[in-house]
Design a protein that fits this description.
By secondary structure, the chain is of the alpha+beta class. About 30% of the residues lie in helices and about 25% in strands. The protein has 30 helices and 40 strands.
């Protein structure tokens, strides 16, 4: 019998207050009051005494009340809305409650017994049942949660809510099926490749993302063996060959580029740079492991990897985002023999959260409604919050960016830096190799249906067939235990030979990838620990259920390894053996369900030559009216979502955990978002790690080559301004493209990748890691029922990572002292194409889209010279503050410097370097290579001597007044604002979240 333990707050509940405000923002005064009750459904054979003990454990005796099988509710309410997870969805709180229950009672629950959580929201207000249902939809995601609603009278009549046990019940007998393909025609092969293997009822299992060329190659392979493949084999090939895993668009020939974009541009530039650096090469592991790695000091390496979790985050923002962040944490843990995650980074591209005008639908006839931009934004932010904070990993650095084209699919970038000693127990820690006879060990969480077809789903546009099972919910607590046991103990005890994470494709990819190291493996699928019985063999093999790593453990080390994991509360199971057979063999219940040559599995996918077209667009050049007073325009600019403060994110993401934070995400007394952060991962060292990024998707509307160049320059410039050295700076690339099977989109991609080659060489900054996501498109229906396609703008995130010799020389963005001199470094030109200023002017003129043509261009030779000079000035302690100039232009950079320091400025454009034609163009141009700095007057002569040979000018001084004044060449005031009011504008747009 299942029992409900309900926990109710005796004191005002802050969570209820927040929820009330949220609901009132949507439903207005109809919402009078909100109360919450947390519910734990215990489905176990326990005594009344045991249940009462559990209830006492789950509640805070001072502030909460807990009851067993007795409904709790406020005296007055109109509707009770209960939300809980659907069967099979990972319930992290319930998992922790179960563990606590077992510890408390000194028992072990049976596999058939479990704990489930839900929450009741009691709403007082004049709502109809239909409106109460809408409230329920606002509180829960129907893709992963159930919603149960009762009126006040129904609640009283039923003595509370109903007892619901969301247990997974699978009645079928698990077995592998043969898939008829050797005699299939092209039409059937195409359907299988797109929609998946057919079930007995005619439905399809979900996308394999295999086009006809791939399907015919698979058909030939099995024809030559005179048999059809099993579903396990076909699903495994689909995972391994997916665009998500194989990156075929970057690997296959493209026009005249026979070796592919990656080899010709990204890899080639990095190889050239490393060769040029010679003995000064700081790269150790590049593009060959789960993360890239550079030298930190004589003892340690620092690793870095940035991933995306776009498609899952569109379906379930919280689950997609938390899976993304804990997944990229595992990229650190899975680097070499295991790195300790030390820093998280993030970046979010959303549609305007204030836009509630129209919904998108995946299905026809207004079915499968997509979540609102606000729901997606808040869910994603919360997911990364929980993933990072609960894992004890600081999340200091990130960005947020908005464009209406991210309404169909958001972009969710998550990254993790790791720290690893160069050697471990006499072994090079960045080298690993599974050996024949090593045991295949699965470590961590159990396998369920969550995360099935994640890799193939992410390799296609999202449409009505996008599967709910592609979404997982990560559990950072389970992963934290795994991480500590591996990185802090097992690694340096020499208990395993190789390790990787169970990410895309689950066991199918992790085991097969590791098996390449020794050329073979044999797996017993029926030994894999499951969340529930009834999973089919193919589901066990490809599920991406979270918190799992795969390790190669020598047989003589297995007793010590398994014993250690048991003591640390981490489940470890030997599920097979690595060998040198040249085959990947998988068995289930004694039957061979997969027997494929390693060569075919990894290298059998056919090469698909691609052709591109490229048409550079031409737009009408905007001609906004020239205004004498630009004060109002500056306030408007600071309120723009792409410029405004995202303090509400920075203040909820823990950046102080691990105690290494140096340069914080919010800087100065004004708490303004900085562009770079610094940490010292080795606490007794003065060395630090500096990270930043550059992203300018709007420029893709004009020219993707210059878009990519600007992203690189911005990522470098942000770090240089904070104190990085150009000679010790590396880059990571994340391409998020759309419609990548179309020649025009491929042409845009080709230009962007070419820029990565050219500018990484020009700056001498190697790429050490990267990831691409090629089909960020939404295919569905609009609010009128019309078929539509929404594609993200071609987006490239370039992340930078560097090592500082001395963190005491870090430079923040805030002006420090009245009387300091304010300089701008670099040239300002009329480069406003796709700028925030043009976008703002267009929106003010009846929502027109102003783009223009003069996209900012990067002069790497000039910028490199300037950056080297500034680094020298910083090394001599001449610079008090430095702020990179990018989105929003010079006026925004100057305002951020003043706002951060809560100090005034008196400035003039009289000596501003560059070819600019108007005051507003000078202030809002997004010309690259510019940095605003402030220095003490005593340093003027030395600073200018160092900067000689680069464009720079003193614009004015810092004052102790609450005034921000900018004058034109003719000495007329064009901006006259209070710094305090500018700060209000800067924090206004997202301040309510």
């Amino acid at each position: 019998m299942a029992h409900r333990i309900e926990v109710f707050s005796r004191v005002p509940d802050a969570r209820a207050s927040v929820r009330q405000k949220k609901l009132q923002s949507h439903f207005g005064k109809k919402i009078k009051d909100v109360a919450l009750v947390d519910v734990y459904t215990v489905d176990a054979n326990l005594s009344a005494e045991q249940l009462n003990s559990i209830a006492l454990m789950l509640a805070n005796h001072v502030t909460q009340k807990a009851t067993v099988d007795e409904a709790q509710a406020p005296e007055k309410f109109d509707w009770a809305i209960e939300a809980g997870f659907l069967p099979g969805v990972k319930d992290n709180v319930a998992a922790t409650a179960r563990e606590c229950l077992e510890d408390l009672l000194k028992i072990k629950l049976k596999e058939s017994e479990d704990v489930y959580t839900s929450q009741i929201t009691f709403v007082a207000g004049t709502l109809s049942r239909e409106e109460a249902s809408v409230v329920g939809e606002a509180l829960a995601n129907p893709l992963i949660q159930r919603i149960h609603i009762k009126s006040f009278s129904d609640f009283k009549a039923g003595k509370g809510m109903d007892v619901i046990v969301p247990k997974v019940r699978l009645a079928h007998t698990p077995k592998a099926d043969l898939v008829e393909i050797i005699n299939a025609g092209d039409a059937e092969l195409t359907v299988i490749g797109k929609q998946g293997i057919a079930n007995k009822d005619g439905s399809r299992r979900g996308p394999l993302a295999l086009d006809l060329t791939y399907m015919k190659a698979i058909q030939k392979y099995f024809k030559d063996r005179h048999r059809n493949p099993t579903d396990v084999e076909l699903e495994s090939i689909a995972q391994t060959w997916s665009e998500h895993c194989k990156h075929t668009i970057f690997a296959d020939p493209l026009d005249e580029i026979t070796e592919g974009l990656y080899n010709t541009f990204i890899k080639a530039s990095t190889q050239k740079i490393r060769k040029q650096k010679g003995a000064k090469d700081f790269c150790v592991s590049v593009f060959t492991d789960n993360s890239g790695a550079i030298i930190f000091d004589e003892t340690f390496l620092v690793t870095d990897k940035v991933e995306t979790h776009n498609s899952p985050s569109a379906l379930d923002p919280f689950g997609g985002a938390i899976t993304g962040i804990v997944g990229v944490n595992r990229d650190a843990i899975g680097f070499g023999l295991g790195a300790k995650p030390i820093i998280n980074r993030y970046g979010f591209c959303f549609a305007d959260p204030r836009d509630s005008r129209a919904f998108l639908y995946k299905g026809p006839n207004f079915t499968q409604k997509m979540l609102s931009p606000e729901a997606i934004m808040l869910g994603v932010i919360d997911g990364v919050n929980v993933g990072g904070n609960c894992s004890g990993i600081p999340s200091p650095q990130g960005f947020i960016l908005f464009d209406e084209r991210y309404k169909g699919k958001p972009l969710v970038f998550v990254g993790t830096l790791g720290l690893i000693p160069k050697t471990s127990l006499g072994r090079l820690s960045y080298e690993k190799e599974a050996k024949p006879s090593d045991l295949i060990v699965m470590l961590g969480g159990r396998v369920g249906k969550d995360g099935i077809h994640g890799a193939t789903f992410s390799s296609e546009a999202m449409d009505s067939g996008s599967p709910a099972t592609a979404v997982q919910i990560g559990d950072p607590i389970t992963q934290k235990k795994l991480s500590d046991a591996v990185v802090k103990e097992a690694r340096d005890m020499g208990l395993y030979d190789s390790i990787t994470d169970n990410g895309a494709g689950g066991l199918s990819c992790s085991i097969a990838e590791m098996a390449r190291e020794c050329n073979g493996c044999r797996v017993d699928l029926d030994k894999v620990p499951l969340k529930y019985h009834g999973l089919m063999p193919w589901e066990i093999w490809i599920s991406e259920s979270q918190e799992r790593m795969t390790l190669a453990v020598p047989k003589d080390k297995w007793p010590a390894f398994s014993g250690l994991m048991k003591r640390r509360g981490v489940e470890a199971t030997a599920i097979g053996e690595f060998n040198d057979s040249g085959k990947c063999v998988v068995k289930y219940d004694g039957d061979t369900v997969m027997d494929i040559d390693m060569d075919f599995l990894h290298d059998g996918l056919p090469v698909r030559p691609m052709k591109t077209t490229y048409t550079k667009p031409k737009y009408d050049e905007p001609k906004p009216a020239e205004e004498n007073d630009l004060t109002k325009s500056l306030h408007s600019m600071l309120r723009r979502l792409n410029i405004s403060s995202f303090e509400f994110i920075s203040q909820q993401y823990d950046h102080e955990v691990q105690g290494a934070s140096v340069l914080k995400p919010l800087q100065g007394r004004g708490r303004v978002n900085g562009e770079a952060t610094i940490a010292k991962p080795v606490l007794n060292s003065k060395k630090g790690v500096i990270i930043s990024q550059g992203i300018n998707p709007a420029y893709s509307d004009i020219d993707t080559y210059h878009m990519a160049a600007c992203a690189i320059d911005t990522a470098i410039r942000n770090s240089i301004a904070a104190g990085a050295s150009l000679g010790y700076l590396a880059l990571l690339d994340n391409f998020c493209w759309c419609s990548s099977s179309e020649p025009e989109r491929l042409g845009q991609l080709k230009e962007a990748v070419r820029a990565c080659h050219d500018y990484s060489l020009a700056f001498g900054t190697p790429f050490i890691s990267g990831k691409d996501s090629m089909f960020n498109d939404f295919k569905g229906f609009d609010e009128k029922g019309n078929a539509i396609k929404v594609s993200v703008p071609p987006t490239l995130l370039v992340s930078s990572i560097g090592v500082m010799e001395n963190i005491e020389k870090a430079v923040s963005i805030d002006a420090k002292f009245s009387g300091d001199l304010v300089y701008v470094l670099g040239e300002t030109n009329d480069e406003l194409g796709a700028s925030e200023y043009y976008a703002m002017i267009g929106e003010q003129l009846n929502g027109k889209k102003f783009i223009g043509n003069n996209v900012p261009k990067v002069n790497a030779e000039k910028n490199k010279k300037l950056y080297l000079a500034l680094s020298k000035a910083i090394s001599e302690n001449l610079v008090a503050s430095a702020q990179s100039v990018h989105r929003g232009g010079l006026a925004v950079a100057l305002a951020k410097t003043a706002m951060a320091g809560l100090l005034g400025m008196e400035l003039s454009l009289a000596k501003l370097p560059g070819a600019w034609s108007r005051n507003d163009f000078a202030l809002y141009s997004e010309s690259q290579g510019r940095i605003v700095v402030s220095i003490a007057p005593k340093n003027k002569e030395r600073f200018e001597a160092i900067m000689k040979g680069s464009a720079f000018a003193q614009l004015g001084i810092v004052t102790d007044k609450d005034s921000f004044i900018i004058k034109a060449k003719n000495n007329d005031k064009i901006i006259d604002a209070k710094v305090s009011k500018l700060l209000e504008s800067y924090k206004a747009s997202l301040g309510g979240y």
